[in-house]
Specification:
heterodimer; A: alpha+beta; Heat Shock Protein 90; B: alpha/beta; Transcription Regulator spoIIAA; 4 helices; 5 strands
Chain lengths: ~160, ~120
């Protein structure tokens, strides 16, 4: 328990195999960790969704569903700012800019919606992806738990009144 | 995720409980498609009442069923969206393709009303 006003600094590191059942595990771990900073229900929900997208991408795209791959998940809390990093050592992304386009997917045959990066960008305040073909992909994202909506003013598409 | 699938007339009602992610969507997709192969099923209604989480993989599964059902002249509907699920629906523009209702009965009434008229 924190005393009033004390700054909450903490971190976690987690290594998991690229198995789809670990998608739920990863997001629950991050949600439990983030709970130390008193996020709202909506903020936790957004963070869980973003983590799910990053880990699912590592499994499906990075490791192409090969469960022997390894995913590194780390998170830090600095005050009320949560930063999350998801690393895989899989195939990497040839064209990150293209991959970030809404509705773009390299695997339409798997009914991938192409929404993963869009969700991460919209549900978090900060988002970046660094990838080297043949070496892997690192996704870093952050959210400040201040009760406000995530920090992207523009809704890129599909948002209805 | 727990799933209960039942036929109501020509409509398959898919009642889900839990979290609709890639892991859950993979199994659910096969279950629904097996039922869709039965001739009398025309429409699919997804009941989200007990779903508290959906990501883009769940979204992709719903969109995939929408495309398949529409090709055969049927409709896909959804009901009882909780706020986190509604957020993903809206971000992806799914609400402009799939009618969303407050309750399962309202969705079924809409379908059946449409058939009468």
């Amino acid at each position: 328990m924190t005393s009033g006003g004390e700054r909450m600094d903490n971190y976690l590191k987690l290594e998991i195999p690229a198995k789809s059942r670990n998608e739920a595990f990863a997001r629950v771990v991050v949600a439990a960790f983030a709970a130390q900073a008193d996020p709202t229900i909506d903020e936790i929900s957004d963070v869980k969704t973003a983590v799910s997208e990053a880990v699912t991408n590592a499994i499906i795209h990075g490791y192409e569903n090969n469960p022997s791959g390894t995913i590194l998940l780390s998170a830090t809390l600095a005050g009320r700012r949560l930063e999350i990093t998801v690393v895989d050592y899989g195939v990497g992304i040839e064209d990150v800019e293209m991959a970030r386009q809404p509705l773009y997917t390299s695997k339409p045959e798997l009914e991938r919606s192409g929404m993963g990066f869009t969700i991460m960008e919209n549900f978090m305040d900060e988002f970046s992806v660094v990838s080297l073909p043949g070496q892997g992909t690192t996704v870093t994202m952050a959210r400040v738990f201040d009760g406000s909506l995530p920090g992207k003013p523009e809704q890129p598409y599909g948002r209805e009144a | 995720m727990q799933v209960r699938i039942r036929a109501k007339g020509e409509t398959l009602v898919v009642q889900m409980r839990g979290e609709l992610d890639h892991h859950a969507a993979t199994g659910l997709r096969m279950e629904i498609d097996a039922k869709l192969a039965e001739n009398k099923i025309k429409n699919v209604l997804f009941n989200f009442r007990d779903v508290d989480f959906m990501d883009s993989s769940g979204f992709g599964m719903i969109l995939g069923r929408y495309k398949a059902v529409r090709e055969k002249g049927g409709k896909v509907l959804a009901c009882s969206l909780r706020p986190p699920v509604r957020r993903v629906f809206e971000l992806g523009g799914l609400t402009s393709r799939i009618p969303v209702f407050g309750t399962e009965q309202e969705a079924l009434d809409d379908l059946w009303g449409g058939e009468d008229g």
